Amino acid sequence: MPIEQPKLVTIIGGSGFIGTQLVQDLARMGYRVRVGVRRPDLAGHLRPLGTVGQIQPMQVNVRNYESVMAGVAGSDVVINLVGILYEGGRQRFRAVHTMGAAHVAQAAARAGVKTLIHMSALGADAESDSTYLRSRALGEDEVRKHFPEAIIIRPSLVFGPDDSFFNRFGMLARYLPVLPAVGAKSRFQPVYVGDVAMAIAKAAGGAAKSGTIYELGGPDVVTMHQIMELVNEYAHRNRPIFDVPEGLAKFMAWFAQWLPHPLLTIDQVITLQNDNVVSEAAEGEKHTLKAFGVAPTPMDDVLPDYMWRFRKHGEFERVEA
User: How many other C-beta atoms lie within 10 A of the C-beta of residue 14?
Assistant: First the structure.
């Protein structure tokens, strides 16, 4: 009898922060993993995460429907992790989060894919003043229209060793005399990248209900001001924290957003004015990490493992008991 091949999981946008962790988890579970990225030549770091030939990068651009069709062909599961934090060139929120999501859902349905998992964002709202959150919500609508059984994952702020949040503020704490807190009173529920990846991996294995939205948050609910306090604590800095008023933040962002890799944009300022926590409805229906049997990891268990790099003397700095 012919030997049955392991299931093929295609991850669109799988070479980034969350994708790298997810690729590793899926490889350990024995799946064949195809990673659709715009630049396969820059995804070589993924191959060693599995056995020989188990992980295959492939050129896929969500703005190009034909490339998405080629990427999902023959897949049992498709996972869309594509997302951007700011706009630049052809990478626009509508093109990536909305139309890109539609392309993936259409292609997955046309290819007969059994399971589609779509990564969105906590706080996605079609009526939001934030272009980012609005594009995420419209993307969800497109996914449900073309693939009604799709599983939608909405994480809060995701943290981990390679994140673009705590690392960014750790760097600012190293060089700036003060730490700016934009949206200082807004509440967040940071979730560990390993927990997000494991939830998605389990969803790929059938642990999620089709057509359901899952909201992923960690065990700690903190304000942006408190997050800056954590940066100070784990970077062993004592920077004053300046709660930036929204108007001043937008003024600063107007200049900063023109940089090639902006630290802040006006749309991000708007986004940060909103709470970013798991809803009571999701908690009540257990459409959270609990649905996947994943115990949320506290920030205190992870931040010391990588925030030491922003201390004056790095990992060799003496820690007083």
Answer: 29
pTM higher than 0.90: yes
Q: Report yes or no: 189 and 218 within 8 Å, Cβ to Cβ.
A: yes
Distance CA 70, CA 78 (A): 12
Residue linked to tokens 């229906």:
285
CA distance 276 to 253: 21
What DSSP string runs through 186-228?
A: -EE--EEHHHHHHHHHHHHTT-S-TT-EEEE--S--EEHHHHH
Helices in the chain by DSSP H: which ranges?
17-28, 65-72, 93, 100-110, 131-146, 166-175, 193-204, 224-234, 246-256, 266-271, 280-285, 304-307
Give the span between the Cα atoms of 47 and 97, in whole angstroms.
Answer: 27
Token pair listed for 222? 């903190």
If you search the block for the tokens 């899952």, which residue do you land on? 214
For residue 180 the two structure tokens come to 């700016």
Residue 37 is classified by DSSP as E
- Rounded CA separation 125/133 (Å): 6
- The model's pLDDT over 75-116, given as tens digits with 9 standing for 90+, comes to 999 999 999 999 999 999 999 999 999 999 999 999 999 999
